[in-house]
Amino acid sequence: MATAYADLDKTEPTKSEQGTAVTKTAAPEADAASEPAANGKQGFAAKLPDLWKEIWPPMVGILGFLAIWAVLAPQVDTSLGALPGPIEVAEQGVSLYNDWSAAKDVEAQFYVDQEARNAAAIAAGTPGRVTDFEYAGPPTFIDQIFTSLQTVALGFLLATVVAVPLGLLAGLSKTFNAAINPLIQIMKPVSPLAWLPIVTMVISAMITSADPLLPKAFVISALVVMLCSLWPTLINTAVGTSSIDKDLLNVGRVLKLGWFAKLTQLVLPASLPYIFTGMRLSLGVGWMVLIAAEMLAQNPGLGKFVWDEFQNGSSQSLARIMFAVVVIGFIGFGLDRIMMALQTLVSKNRTV
Fold first, then answer.
1. Pairwise CA distance, residues 218 & 148, whole Å
2. Which of 153, 142, 190, 194 is nearest to 302 (CA)?
3. Which pLDDT score is estimated for 93?
4. Is the dihedral of CA 164, 168, 171, 177 positive or negative?
5. How far apart are CA 330 and CA 312, in angstroms?
6. Do the beta carbons of residue 349 and residue 262 sit within 8 Å?
7. Alpha-carbon span 248 to 254, nearest angstrom
8. What is the mean pLDDT of residues 308-337?
9. Dihedral angle at the C-alpha atoms of 335, 338, 340, 341, nearest 10 degrees?
């Protein structure tokens, strides 16, 4: 019997049986290959209703605002004519971009001509370069945007460097917190318009070089941003540090961690959500302060652009000012989203 079963096992299948076996084995592979694609389509289709629920409310809100603006704007008369609607404002945005593009072409041609003059002078036997000037054309709207972004970046960086260490000390030491708390409460509500003349006089006395490393107006605006925006980061850092679980600090004492290891491995990771919340608030405050400081001090940037258009008083000025306001709002929103993304990234990598 065992031999019979062995012979049956060794019997080769017929051609029809082979075809059937191949068909039966190939079918599951085809199903397995088509299953992920089907699941992917079903997964995307299942997400569409939720995605639409998230998208349609802001779309309706924005379109409704634009419709109300377009209807009411022609009914508002100003000294420069009727209030511009969304279409007029968008047209001025395109015009400002065209002005920037034309200015870049002029700048490029300026350097080409300068190189041609230098090449001709050298060919005539004049040693070295004859002219080597920087293009000094008037800044365009987009140039002003980059100037404001650079200024707020420096002011925000200085505010963070000052506020985070002070906040950590205030959170770890009740004595230090009690010492600086009155100063914080007094300095925090001071307007940037009050800081601006003080900072201007101090920086003007300190920077006396004819060719400083950083332009004087740039430093003044950045310092005003720092003085007005460091308080949210300082306060939130102190609150986050003081609210750390005491058991966590006791673990550090048991492990006999040094102050630096305790700070970097326990205190900072536990305080990061508070620190980033303060930094987001500080960046928003700094962006608002910067526009006011540039407008008042006539320092280069978006604030100066708005003030110059207001003083210009042309028929296009009001639409250009409104376009600048929209851009200022979008940039502020974008800066906040960037800080939120950084906070999410750092929170994922936390070890405490």
1. 9
2. 142
3. 93
4. negative
5. 25
6. no
7. 10
8. 91
9. 170
Most confidently modeled of 26-40, 206-220, 311-325?
311-325
Residue 91 has pLDDT above 90, yes or no: yes
Which neighbouring-strand residues pair with 81?
A: 78
Tens of pLDDT, residues 289-298: 999 888 888 8
Please give the single-letter amino acid code of residue 334: G
Beta-strand runs (E) in the chain: 77-78, 81-82
Task: Give the single-character DSSP code of 214.
Answer: S
The DSSP bridge partners found for residue 78 are 81
Residue ranges covered by each domain of the chain: 18-72, 139-348
pLDDT band of 285, cuts 50, 70, 90: very high
Q: Which amino acid is at 102?
A: A
Q: Note whether 136 and 204 are within 8 A (CB).
A: no
Which residue(s) pair with 82 in the sheet?
77
Give the integer Cα–Cα distance in Å for 99 and 91: 12
Task: Give the N- to C-terminal CA distance of the chain in Å, as an integer.
Answer: 70
Structure tokens at 101: 């593009």
Q: Which amino acid is at 139?
A: P
Match 């003059």 to its residue by tokens: 117
Taking CB atoms within 8 Å and a gap of at least 24, the contacts of 301-308 are: 301/144, 301/147, 301/148, 301/151, 301/221, 302/144, 302/145, 302/148, 302/327, 302/328, 303/148, 304/144, 305/141, 305/144
Q: Which CATH superfamily is domain 139-348 in?
A: MetI-like (1.10.3720.10)
286 residue type, one letter: G
How sure is the predictor about 27, in pLDDT bands with cuts at 50, 70 and 90? very low
Could you read off the pLDDT of 224-253 as tens digits, one per residue? 999 999 999 999 999 988 888 777 777 777
Residue 325, C-beta contacts closer than 8 angstroms, at least 6 positions apart? 306
Of 148, 95, 136, 128, nearest to 319 (Cα)? 95
Q: Residue written as tokens 């945005």?
A: 93
d(CA 321, CA 38): 52
Q: How many CB atoms lie within 10 A of CB 308?
A: 16
Element (H, E) at 77: strand 77-78
Q: How many CA atoms lie within 13 A of 278 on its CB side?
A: 26
